[in-house]
């Protein structure tokens, strides 16, 4: 039986939809060194950085959303960009009073699902990327998380630690690790979430780009 989504998970992940990162590993050798290389390549592609090379000398003034989106863009312009990319909006929901679109088909290494949030003026305020793979163990998730963290640090400097907790919630052992990089008027957060009950294990990594 799958571990139920908890209020704590919803607080950090917003929704119970997560990406599947599968095809890359299916097409490569499965040794530990190969997996670490793949995680680095995926994380580098996700963050828009080269896997090798020196850190940036100048920290950007603003953290921009992915896919060429711009903070404050109206819904119609975002939808036009999605259609131009031949992606599709699979659901249109309202979450905590905000329009939220679940999008599939945006091109980025390992990406399957993106959640796009709009504020009260129907303009872009948040983009969430979610990752999960049923064959990854704890070490694999840690490698993925650390690769993403290193590349964010290379661009934005040291993060603020938002969470580093491991404690029981009822009969479920929960682990939450979270980091935030804040710039003028924008931020990005990186989270790892794990819930374990006996042999029932759920894990995920998510990236949250936010305006404000």
Summarize the structure in words.
By secondary structure, this protein is α+β, with helices and mostly antiparallel strands. It has a domain at 15-157. It is 26% helix and 35% strand. The protein has 5 helices and 8 strands. The protein has helices at residues 7-13, 23-26, 32-47, 75-84, 138-156, and strands spanning 88-95, 98-104, 114-118, 124-131, 160-169, 172-183, 186-197, 200-211. The protein has an 8-stranded antiparallel sheet with strand order 1-2-3-4-8-7-6-5, with helices on both faces. Helix 3 (32-47) packs parallel to helix 5 (138-156). The longest helix is centred in the C-terminal third of the chain and has 19 residues, at 138-156. The protein is globular. The termini are far apart. The model is unreliable at 4-31 and 48-56 (pLDDT under 50).
Keyphrases for this structure?
212 residues; alpha+beta; 8-stranded antiparallel sheet; 5 helices; 35% strand
The total of beta strands comes to 8
Kindly report the average pLDDT value: 79
Beta-strand proportion: 25-35%
Strand order, biggest sheet? 1-2-3-4-8-7-6-5
Radius of gyration: 17 Å
The percentage helix is: 25-40%
The major β-sheet equals: 8 strands, antiparallel
How far apart are the first and last residues' alpha carbons, in Å? 39 Å
Uncertain regions spanning at least 5 consecutive residues: 4-31, 48-56
